[in-house]
Amino acid sequence: MGTVDKMVRKFLSCNFNVMLFHYDGIVDAWKELDWVSRVVHVSAVNQTKWWFAKRFLHPDIVAEYSHIFLWDEDLGVENFDPDRVLSEFQHDSRMIGIMMDA
After folding, report:
1. Domain boundaries along the sequence of the chain
2. Rg (Cα) of the chain, in Å, rounded?
3. What's the predicted TM-score (pTM) here?
4. What separation in angstroms does the CA of 84 have from each of 26, 28, 36, 79, 87?
5. By CB atoms within 10 Å of each CB, which of 20, 23, 41, 82 scores lowest?
6. Are 23 and 44 in contact (CB under 8 A)?
């Protein structure tokens, strides 16, 4: 839960909308975090990441957003700055892979 907490805080601090997919059915454990009501929670037991993406990231839903990050819970955010990535992406989309290694 600690990694997800850091990730959510980082994205919310940059004014992103956050949607969490819960594949284990455990949603109540997140209620202790102060940001829990500021994110969308989608829960379905025993489903894969791609099952969620296919059903909840439909083109009609994502069309209003200019960028979408799909973030796995085991990927750290210590060296990730969403605003910097978007700024660099607008400048040169080939920079994304390089920045993620920084």
Report:
1. 2-100
2. 14
3. 0.73
4. 33, 33, 25, 11, 5
5. 41
6. yes
Distances from the Cα of 67 to the Cα of 17, 50, 55, 70, 93, angstroms: 11, 18, 18, 10, 12
- 10: pLDDT strictly greater than 60: yes
Q: What is the pLDDT of residues 26-48, one digit of tens each?
A: 778 888 899 999 998 888 888 88
Tell me the sheet residues that pair with 19. Answer: 40
Q: What does the CA dihedral 28, 37, 20, 71 come to, rounded to 10 degrees?
A: -130
Asked whether the beta carbons of 39 and 18 are under 8 A apart, the reply is yes
Residue 95: both structure tokens together = 């920079």
Length of the chain measured in residues = 102
